[in-house]
Design a protein that fits this description.
CATH architecture: Roll
Helix content: under 10%
Radius of gyration: 19 Å
Order of helices and strands: HEEEEEEEEHEEEEEEEE
Structural class: mainly beta
Distance between the termini: 54 Å
């Protein structure tokens, strides 16, 4: 009986961070950005300043496919989510991407959204992709409908860009701390993800109007959590690769694919468990948005 309780607790908590279950996602707080970026190489002919734009009509609908294969927790999962991304900029020059979940399908079975109001995330970020605020309170009305943690995967799918003009072959390094807290009604504590992302501008072609960016990602996890009266210690690492294509004129992502392999050592009330997971996140631009 005790081993079943430990396994259930491990599944519930780990699902917040590595899988599509979304079992702990209700009630997350907003998360600020903690980061540093260094431009290591300017590249050849560094004449192009690449930035995201927040004009009406850009961005639009995106299909996000998430595939997870985990050992030690919950097997394999597949989910397709359709998001509408609406950009805006207010008089105070706050730049916002409103991420609205339109539909959700697990495997081949549509399973949502199953809530009354359209859930949305207000993501404030700079033209170079630096996150200033990621407010997730509304979307977690969806509870366990299979969202995973949008903060983790969206911020990894959208490259953070240099503030200077760059050319092909440019290289830059992002060091970032993602803080992924347990919701207030599920316990206390948070998982810290220390990320090092090595970006490279593979190509920037005016004729095809696109910039191709690739990245190597390394993550170190550390968390001491107290969910539902228990104690959970998480230590682990992850490595992965990102390939993203940015539309230079429109200033939005065309596609992005992130592949991650995670290795976690978990200790639940003194009982140890190892979890490995392979995840693939693919974001594809479906159609432009319409002005409101």
């Amino acid at each position: 009986m005790k081993s079943l309780l430990i396994r259930a607790l491990a599944i519930t908590v780990t699902a917040c961070f590595i899988s599509n279950i979304g079992a702990c996602n209700k009630g997350h707080a907003s998360s600020p950005d903690s980061w540093s970026l260094s431009l290591n190489k300017n590249g050849s002919d560094p004449s192009k300043l690449i930035q995201y734009k927040f004009t009406k009509g850009s961005w639009g609908k995106y299909l996000l496919t998430m595939k997870t294969k985990a050992e030690g927790v919950n097997g394999e999962e597949l989910a397709d989510l359709v998001w509408k991304i609406v950009p805006s900029q207010d008089q105070e020059r706050k730049r916002i991407l409103e991420l609205e979940l339109i539909s959700l399908k697990k495997g081949k079975i549509p399973s949502g959204p199953q809530w009354d109001a359209p859930p949305s995330i207000m993501w404030e970020l700079s033209p170079t992709g630096r996150t200033r605020r990621f407010g997730t309170s509304l979307i977690y009305n969806a509870g366990a409908d299979g969202l995973g943690d949008p903060q983790a995967y969206f911020r990894r799918l959208v490259p953070v860009l240099p503030e200077k003009a760059i050319g092909e072959g440019a290289q830059w390094t992002l060091k970032r701390l993602l803080q992924l807290p347990l919701p207030r009604d599920s316990g206390k504590g948070q998982l810290n993800a220390h990320e090092t992302i090595e970006y490279k501008l593979k190509s920037s072609d005016k004729r095809s109007n696109k910039a191709v960016i690739e990245a190597d990602i390394k993550i170190r996890y550390k968390g001491d959590l107290e969910p539902v009266g228990h104690f959970l210690k998480i230590r682990g690492t992850a490595e992965g690769k990102l390939k993203a294509i940015i539309d230079l004129d429109a200033g939005h992502l065309r596609t992005a694919e992130l592949r991650l392999k995670e290795k976690l050592n978990m200790e639940v009330d003194g009982h140890k468990r190892k979890v490995t997971a392979q995840m693939t996140y693919t974001l594809r631009h479906a159609q432009p948005s319409k002005t409101k």
